[in-house]
Structures
1.
Amino acid sequence: MITKGMHFLKNYVGIDVGGTSIKYGLVNQDGKMIEQNSSPTAKQKQQILTDLTSIVTDYQKNGQAIAGIGVSMPGVIESDGILTTAGAIKCMYGVNLKEELEQHTGIKTTIENDANAAAIAEQWLGAAQDLHNYLGIVLGTGVGGALVINDQVYRGAHARSGEFGWMLLDDQHDELEDGSMNFQTATVIGLLRIYNIKAQANLTDAREVFDRADNGDKIAQPVLHNYFRKLAQAILNLVVCFDPAKVVVGGGISVNPTFQAGLQEAYNELQEEHASVRDLN
């Protein structure tokens, strides 16, 4: 029986395409996650497109009415859905993902840079509620970023605003990009890469670096210390440039209590050492 005034929530498919995995789920218009899952990110363009289409059609086969699709991707994404770049997912460069998914599913699709999507979500339901000017940083395979000014994501003249990962933290490397925020502070191509080089290891999960540091590993401890210092340096640079009310750090690594404490301590130390910003809140 249908009662007058009943409120039916629309359901949407949300998909986050990362360098190593695709996370997806069914979410309603109030932001409640109904179902969620993940799968590895394929290496070939056509397989990725097939996998993304299958995520949506599988929900439809299960009787779900889908009102829209939202996809977050790393890289430079134009307003028409063209992936100018796609971070570490090189095979997707130049693909009009909006057009591809709409053709295969018949459902309106929005494509957004992953860090921008995270920043929008933080203001809606997360740590940036009631804030109007803030920064978002996402640590994963690489580093993503978003700049929100007066409640709007600032995209820049070429949709490249927020590519904080390209920012240089030092130039004391044979390859200049090795000194970038990506290669110094990302979870995978930063922390894991640096530890594996120094320890001649082949770790694939950053949590193992934290565990080894906790257990007294003489390589993991200084690697983590330097990692926090570099990340704090990058954040301080952004803070003095944009004067945000808050910097929201996301990505899987951000829920680790040791990460949270280590980064905060490094930032506080750096601010204390910097005479010009020492007394700023």
2.
Amino acid sequence: MKISRLYTFVRLAELKSFSLVAEELQLTQPAVSIQIKALEEYFDVRLVKRTSDGVILTPEGEILYRDTKEMLQIWDNLKQKINRLQNLVKGELNIGASTIPGEYLLPELIVGFCQEYPLVELKMEVKDSRSVLQDLLKKKYDLGIVGIKPEEKDIKAIPIASDELVLIVPKDHPFARKGIVIRQEIIKERFILREEGSGTRKAMKEGLAKLGVNIADLQIAAQLGSTEAVIAAVESGLGVSIVSSLAALRAEKLQRLKVIQVKGFQIQRQFYLAYLSELEDKIQVQKFIEYIQNKK
């Protein structure tokens, strides 16, 4: 019996989709189906059923899922204990990061961590903060780095860096000659926003609310899925936006746009290193947390 087949079965039970499991494990859907079929032949029972709402477990599948999940956790703990005895830090470390830390903070940190722990195979995906936290709860990631403070009780979070939001405009925009503008001026502009679920969008919404501006009352030119896409749209003249200073100042240095001060608008936010309580004893997780805290 291959442990990889049992792990595939557990993820199928949790994600309820062959396609999602295939995507997560970087397999083809037929390969996932073959592994599940092999388990069913091994136990001589049907373990899953396909329905219009996704995959559901049979009674036999429920028993196998419950006990296998516990067994895999024991197996992982055993590997961790053996690694500690050998003073080794190795294995996979899966990180989900929101756009700003994923593109502007983590790359340099990851290089240093991998140099210090060369036996760790680090994998990172970038998406919005809310999606990272949802996948963290599903145990797709060992760690998440996000721009919103997690509210979920099972997630622990450590602040690791701070950032502020700034207004960006095209280089030839009338604001570019002013340097500072007021509330009444910005509400007349066409805005480019990040997508729902983005930590940048949430912070922007809170900052504008303090100025008495409802985000729903803005003229929305576009909603885009990454900060770089927003910057490119501003650079092309589509509109203005409010984004992370980490991204904005880099783009301004390259003369792609102008950063403008808005009177009374000062929004700082934290980036958080998030992880599940039950995974904090995993040696790769421990070492990454220690490494990040030492770099603060």
3.
Amino acid sequence: MTAMRIRKILVALTGADSDSATAETACTVGGLFAARVEGLFARPRPEDAIAFVGEGMSSAVVGEIVEAAAKETKARADKAGAAFAAACKAHGYTIGEAGGSGTAAWSEVEGLTDVVIAEHGRLADLVVLGHPGGDEPDRTSIAVEGALFDSGTPVLLAGPKAAAEPSSSVVIAWDGSARAAAAVRGALPFLKRAKSVLILSIGNVDEIVPSPADLVDYLALHDIHATTSTMKADGAAGERIVEGAAAEGATLLVMGAYGHSRLREMVLGGATRSVLDKAGLPVLMAH
């Protein structure tokens, strides 16, 4: 059987200090798969800042707030674009070329961050984002949640530093869920390249359906050799997953993304948030 090939990567940048590592990761992965890399900056409308302004402010003050928001957005867009341009140059990508493998493009789209990223991510094979947290947790969390819960596309969260070969040693956090299975399918191109693949489960594996052994058989159909390991459920699941990945020396963690509804929006669940807060390596997720 042939695994899906990565032909188009969307990397969403926010103007954060972590943009350089995120863009580097996207271009590194793009080079591994000869994929097109498209950089994206979601440009908030200046007038949206009015929604956060308290009542009773004069029109002059409101105008100043909108103007300041516009200046900040421009500065962020310029910073994000510069990070993308530098990464493309370092990896031999020329921005502005026509569509096709090995090409790159940059765009700035006005709208809400999560909505813009979700909409543009739906026609990509992989969305690359910075880890939620870091220097700007609110901005990155909004981007991650939009991509994970509303794009239908696997999401690769870059580590603090760009890895030369993120798929060298892969750990799969397996609990038998549809989310974990979706993450595995999205990770098949990486798993095909991996030197080692470990299926990590927490707790009683007899209660996991499909079992880790079933996943081993499934991956074998794709000519991927995997081994299994089980950790005791004697702590928070997210922390145990991070510990297991670190013990294995993993360069990539694959796991399903959990969330719950709040005010009709999806937000990251506790175990997922715990992994993202503590993992110092790229994490490939799907929901």
4.
Amino acid sequence: MKMSLSKQKIVFFTTILFMTVSMLESCRPVQGCTDPNAYNYNSSADEDDGSCAYYPGCTDPNAINYDPNADIDDGSCEYPAGCTDPVADNYDPTAQVDDGSCWYQYGENSGKITVYREGECWENNVDVYFGDSFEGTLTSFYTTLPDCDANAEAGKIITFVDSYGDYDFKATSEAGTEWKGKVYIPRNGCVDVKLRCGGYIGGNALVTDNTKGEIMVWTKLDLPLNISVQINDADAGVIRTNYDSIPNCGASGCVTKCSLTPGTYTIDASSGSYTWSNYTIQVFGGECSKFELK
């Protein structure tokens, strides 16, 4: 079948256009490095574009084999390798490439917690719970505080390793005192929980509840009898020790009341012929309010 005259013309002009474009392209100079002495010499280039480089090497200043004289990177850069995890025991802050050498005393995703009683609180035995798990019973106390990483000592300290994160903590004594709070176990870290008198929890594992407050009642007086304390007309405990200066909340021998809603509270106390009546104290969230019997 013969092609029509109009179609023949279209094919002819298309062919001419294609040949023209090809000729123009072939006339265009190839750009590149035209110096045979250069590292990146291009034998096909017929027009120098200023890209010639004469000294290949590592051009990254952060690399351990950085070459300040190199003017073209040859892919040879090497970087310091080591442990790049900041919580690992062998963390190397200079390492840029992790070589899988990290090691962890307590585990990559776990930590250690240590629980003990701080001072004599006349609480008898104390059962310790972590989450829903019973961890053991404290039958004694410390006066000189142990290291967080101390080994478990029957009756005096409870230690265990668990996955990192927040946990509900609870301890209860035979005398009826209860310690409750939320604690945090860090990755590959060791934290402690100090059970102080009156249900006060100390230590760096505690996550502070800023919605609740505490009251501690103490005295400098050296009386022959213990001092019975009531807070809002309810028995709060007995002061058995006097201090020369203001003690910490939960100190042994003082009366500490925890998990109190912020507000105004009344304090009454008695010891033989000594009485203290209708004193008031303000409780603030996340704070321990201290009151001295004088």
